[in-house]
Amino acid sequence: MVTFVTTNPGKIHEAQEYLDEPVEQLDFDYPEAQADDLATVAANGARAAYEHVGEPVIVDDSGLTVDALDGFPGPYSSYVEDTLGIERVWQLTKDEDDRSAAFRGVVAYCDGEAFEATPEPVDRGSAESDERRGQDTAADERASATTDGQVARDEDAPPVKLFEGVVPGEIVAPRGDGGFGFDPIFEYNGTTFAEMDTEEKNAISHRGRALAKFGEWYAER
Ligand code: ITT
Q1: For position 68, what pLDDT does the model report?
Q2: Residues 213/163, Cβ–Cβ less than 8 Å
């Protein structure tokens, strides 16, 4: 069983459909670090959630970045969804020539124990490299960009294992009623995420990619 600490039932629904393990939601609003990169927010969130529940946890920190808006709303996606709303993000973007965007997400796991070295351990304490790596991989490999990482320990903080996913797409006028959040305005290959069922979305989405990596690693653990 995996305890997924989140206030967002949309994330749980996707994880449940994706992972072989049963997924239990723990609705705990862990304190989110004010940081510009998802990896730092996710890592700190996983530690805080683990300290709160005392059992193995995953958290997901994710967001939409719109190129023409210099990466906005990025780590503030949840707040912008609640305040501006997705229709206004479309309005802000619709007159741009280039409406490219990406969903980025990091799934972070913490169980208080040390981990075996990963095939490619990455020091995810470095904030800036996360964003740059996401952009490079998104550009190189239109739909496939994941990176595993292990966060360097701060003194006595428990280690955290990170799984990252990025999916490039385009901002469009809202279409579809599936999914959650910005799904209706995010188009991938002619279809918005809100027009896909969960299985289709998981097969290509940032969260699906991160969960695939996590699931593989967790099954071995
Ligand atoms: P928790 O922090 O409690 O997990 P949250 O919804 O606040 O829930 P985040 O802080 O990670 O989660 O914010 C992610 C926001 O990014 C989310 O609220 C959506 O607005 C957007 N988002 C992330 N993944 C998405 C997806 O797959 N489809 C649509 N919107 C997504």
Answers
A1: 97
A2: yes
Q: How far apart are the C-alpha atoms of 100 and 208, rounded to whole Å?
A: 20
What is the CA(79)–ligand 1 centre distance, in A? 9
Q: Is 207 in the pocket of ligand 1 (CB under 6 A)?
A: yes
Ligand 1 atom nearest residue 80's Cα: 20
Say yes or no: CB of residue 7 within 6 Å of ligand 1. Answer: yes
Give 5-55 pLDDT, tens digit per residue: 999 999 999 998 888 888 999 998 887 776 778 888 899 999 999 999 999
- What pLDDT is stored for residue 126 in this prediction? 33
Alpha helices in the chain (DSSP H): 9-18, 38-53, 77-83, 86-93, 127-140, 198-204, 206-220
pTM: 0.82
Is the minimum distance from the CB of 181 to ligand 1 under 6 angstroms?
A: yes
Annotation marks residue 61 as catalytic:
yes
Is residue 192 lining ligand 1, measured as CB closer than 6 Å?
Answer: no
Domains of the chain (ranges; CATH) run: 2-218 (3.90.950.10)
* Average pLDDT over every residue of 140-152: 37
**Closest by Cα among 191, 62, 195, 203 to 134:** 62
Please tell me the total number of residues recorded for the chain in this structure. 221
Tell which wins on pLDDT, 62 or 141: 62
Mean pLDDT for 172-185 is 97
Single out the catalytic residue among 27, 36, 60, 61. 61
